[in-house]
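User:
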Amino acid sequence: MASPEAKECPVLSRVFLVGCSRSGTTVVQRCLNAHPAITSFPETNFFGRLVGGWSGSLQARFGRVRLSRWHSAFGHLADVLERPGLAAREQDAGDFGQAVDAFVGALDTVAGERDARVWVEKTPKHYRYVRLLEGAVPDARFIHLVRDGRDVVASLVDRARRYPGFERRLDPRAAARLWNEAVHAALRSQGRPGHVLLAYEAFVGAPERELRRLCNFLSLEYDPTMLSPQSSAGIVTANESWKSDVDKPITRSRSKFDEVLTAREQRIVRKTLDWRAYHQLFPNAVTDEWCR
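Assistant: Predicted structure:
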């Protein structure tokens, strides 16, 4: 679906960093962004806005999107990239392929201006659109980040209690189902060309090893500045106050599972989490206690 101009762009790789929210995607993004050949941006949520749910995905497979979603996606992208005039051509409104071309072109342009050969778009829930993106974005690569489900659910619930706009994750069962959905998406992509799996626990335990692995995946030389990245300015917006600790050194975040959830909620979460799918991704992970 991409235009010939997009294919001729000097960008080496277009990378989507995906996974369940609160899995550590911003920490990984910050390290990647420190590489001199990589640039990144705040979350665009472009495909969430452009496509939406299953009916929108079906429309997109036939090359169409709702006009209201088209305007929403480009309006938000213009805000994120701080380019007020950004938009696909009005005559292309509603055309999914043309929308993707305009999206890719915009990010390619920013990357070119920053002398970057790789851009990383980090919107966690873009895992829902992996199949669409594989066919629509040239040279697309995907990093699937997965974190222990108990820690993710506790963090989702904690954020929902502390910040407005996340009320849907107040229910631990709903938060666990969201994690299941992301893990299933990673499982469907496991072993496919252009996809790499990253465990949060492995990343924070041995960041240099995992960053070298990611650089190899992206055909880049490892750069030591990735271990001590500068400020997250440029990838975190002022209104994302729940990401305030992202500039701290790379360490494993403290688990909030026992702190945030009651004993009853913990039992519900353990019962709801699909630990079998997680174990398929990470056969050596200790997951027996999830069932207790």
